[in-house]
């Protein structure tokens, strides 16, 4: 049986910089925040799985919609839309 090839440094950097991985990290951070808040509210550690399921049921759709709008707004500003794009985004919300 052969050992799996080692990942190159460039490969790991590519993964860490990918938008999918960045979204995963952002979502994970929100779940951990939810876990902490709910655990504090209830007075005991609710665990990651319970926090995950509760966050998905109560908050994920809204969080994703807000994050998508924020990323679109940032992309518009970077693309030169500047203040006009930002003002249009604020009118929509």
Describe the structure.
This protein is mainly α and 93 residues long. It folds into two domains: 10-58, no CATH class; 62-93. Helix content is 80%, strand content 0%. The longest helix has 24 residues, at 19-42. The radius of gyration is 19 Å and the shape is flat.
Percentage of residues in strands:
under 5%
Q: H/E order of the elements?
A: HHHHH
The portion of residues assigned to helices is: over 70%
Rg of Cα set = 19 Å
> How many domains comprise the coordinates?
2
Structural class: mainly alpha
What is the CA-CA span between the terminal residues?
A: 58 Å
Tally the beta strands: 0
Major sheet summary line: none
Low-confidence stretches: none
Write the topology of this structure.
Blueprint: H1 9-17, H2 19-42, H3 48-58, H4 60-78, H5 82-92
Can I get a quick summary?
With 93 residues, this protein is mainly α. It has five helices and no strands. The chain has two domains: 10-58, no CATH class; 62-93.
């Amino acid at each position: 049986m052969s050992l799996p090839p080692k990942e190159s440094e460039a490969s790991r950097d590519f993964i860490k910089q990918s938008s999918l991985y960045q979204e995963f990290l952002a979502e994970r951070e929100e779940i951990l925040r939810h876990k902490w808040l709910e655990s504090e509210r209830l007075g005991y550690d609710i665990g990651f799985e319970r926090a995950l399921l509760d966050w998905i049921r109560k908050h994920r759709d809204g969080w994703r919609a807000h994050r998508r709008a924020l990323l679109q707004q940032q992309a518009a500003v970077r693309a030169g839309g500047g203040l006009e794009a930002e003002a249009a985004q604020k009118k929509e919300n």
